[in-house]
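[retry 2/3] VWFA domain-containing protein: previous attempt timed out, resubmitting with same input.
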Amino acid sequence: MISFNKHYINLAQSNFDIQQKYLQNVPDDEAPQQCIQQYDLKNPVDVKYGYKDNQSLLFEIHKNLPHQPDFKIGVDLIYLIDINQTLNDEALEKMKSALKCLINYLTEQDRLCIIIYNNKADKLFPLIPLNEKNRQIILQKIDQITLQKGNSNILNALLVANLCLKLRQYKNQITSINVISQDVEIQQNNHDFKQIFEKELVFKLKTFLLLSNKQQESPKIKKKPGNTKDGNLQIVKSVDQLSSLLCYQATKLQQSVIKNLLIIVKTHKQCPIQLSEQEGGKFQYVNPYEIRISKNLISFGYNKVHLISLKNSPIIEADQICEIEVSFEQTTSNHRQKYLIPINTQKSNGIIDRSVMVDKYRLKSRSQMNEAIIYYDPHRIQDSTEILKNYLSELANLPDDIKQQLTVETKQFDDALQKYLQNPFQQIQNPFIAIDDLKKQQRLKPFDNH
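[retry 2/3] VWFA domain-containing protein: success.
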């Protein structure tokens, strides 16, 4: 990361013309018609919890944010488009169609800037609102995009985008930088890109990596079993999906109502915390008695469940095990709100909230199946089958009503185990990839322009 940032700084210093414009402080944007919507948020986050054997507590971070299609705030969107000739003409036309489709989802409060790049970067137009006049300008500029010879130099484009933000005379509630490229090398530094925009407070960075059929088989592609998403990187295996993905991403940003969510779990000295598993958000283990969960942006109706499992010493007789402090800001104001959620002891053995345990085992099924596939070796097949058997034995010990809700997961593990036992020399496919991909397609269907 240090070498990447050093390269970026050197590049920024060499772009004299752009730097001079920045030093002269010349505004490089157009302010939209201001329209700020307010939404009354009191306690937007619930914490459900459960434990078994008086030793393991599981917290589910749940958002009380129903889908609100009429609520939209302004977003500043900058798209960095790689026009290097590794992209073919057909893919370029589909990319341009996706951008045009995106225009229909943006409002007059949103602003857009498109920067194309290969060896150098060119800004097609400054950051401008999506009013009727500017829509025509944007559509014409998109039609004029053509492929050009040269290497994909993302650093030039990031420099132009960063200075574009610095020269703003007006800021929308949320800023987002989106990279669209077919350069597989972009994976190496993708996580470092955000460092360039570290001064942007309410900020989202997203990279859409378009893969050709040949690239999908390339050893350069970092494959993560059962997942096509890695941090800020979204791997797009078909350009036809790009339209839905861009519109979905923009709509989520338009409906982001909470920023800088912080959840602090505090326990007492008789019940220290040992972090055992986590899912979703950024987790910070402060000390044996405090853990913090943070999330930058939260939007209406698009939130995954966040789970955190804490292994505790045997529960003592005290009424309160721990206290959870929730604090957040609304994207339409800088006022920070805070409230407390006490977690009390359970009066009888068993599970407090069964839905929490269902979510836990659904998430665990994905990680355990991935692990069984990763450890596959035809000469040591017992390593993989042992993982599958252990998961099934855990499910067998759950209450019947929870097991009924996990029938899909149970069936997939049973099938995988039988396939391994029948033919140890045949590696199986991860069944949850198809299951979860179908759910993603259903989620993106409303944004499909076909």
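[retry 2/3] VWFA domain-containing protein: The chain has three domains: 2-30+73-254, 45-69+256-351, 355-441.
[retry 2/3] clearing retry counter.
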